[in-house]
Automatic annotation (TrEMBL):
It comes from Ulvibacter litoralis. This is 3-deoxy-8-phosphooctulonate synthase. It is found in: Cytoplasm. Pfam families: DAHP_synth_1. Its EC number is 2.5.1.55. It catalyses: D-arabinose 5-phosphate + phosphoenolpyruvate + H2O = 3-deoxy-alpha-D-manno-2-octulosonate-8-phosphate + phosphate. It is an enzyme of class 2 (transferase).
Amino acid sequence: MKLDLIPKIKHTDANNFFLLAGPCAIEGEDMAMLIAEKIVAITNRLKIPFIFKGSFKKANRSRIDSFTGIGDEKALQILKKVSDTFDVPTVTDIHEVSDAALAAKYVDVLQIPAFLVRQTDLVVAAANTGKVVNLKKGQFMSPESMQHAVKKVTDSGNTQVAITDRGTMFGYQDMIVDFRGIPTMKQYAPVILDVTHSLQQPNQTIGVTGGRPEMISTIARAGIATGADGIFIETHFDPANAKSDGANMLDLHLLEKLLTDLVAIRTTINHL
């Protein structure tokens, strides 16, 4: 993947990591615009290439009464408004083959969820749109196995592909990050570390995923130190009342300090 080929991407000459960040799900226009405005200001000051993230729908939910979205077209139009207003690229995840062409009308990067990354038809449909394809490593997959997912994209004629590590299952209700996977997967494509999903505690008996957001800084720092090309962070101004994944999201007011620290680590590494 060539970062500078992504439409509207900024600061590609800063030799910095890039950032995918935003709320887990698009809950409405006001919240999306507020979060985007804050992140854009921070990333411009720190010269971090930034892609705004928001799910236009949530298809993988523990319970049937869990929030799934505000309507596909409505959420995608909000993502487009974020892009137009702040002149930044956007990313959303897709779950069905038909989602690929639909979402590609509105966003710049199509993300394949971890549970679906082995679904050939879905990966190929995303690749065939010509958009950047972000492949999330399955919680059940080795780093080495991701080369085959990457090859599905490149064999479809699309070289704009990245891999995101979001942790590996450790028992039934916990995740771990094996940082050995970062240099391994960098052999196949640029690697992004999904910090917040790596700290999920899934399969809770109440049917709502838990998390350990107090460890976000630790995991993010380690990711930059071990060579991650990009960082993925879900953030919200009120995580306790977020409609999806609030238990592992970063409070928005903590984002600037975290990114400032990560830039300092990256700068140090660049001078080694």
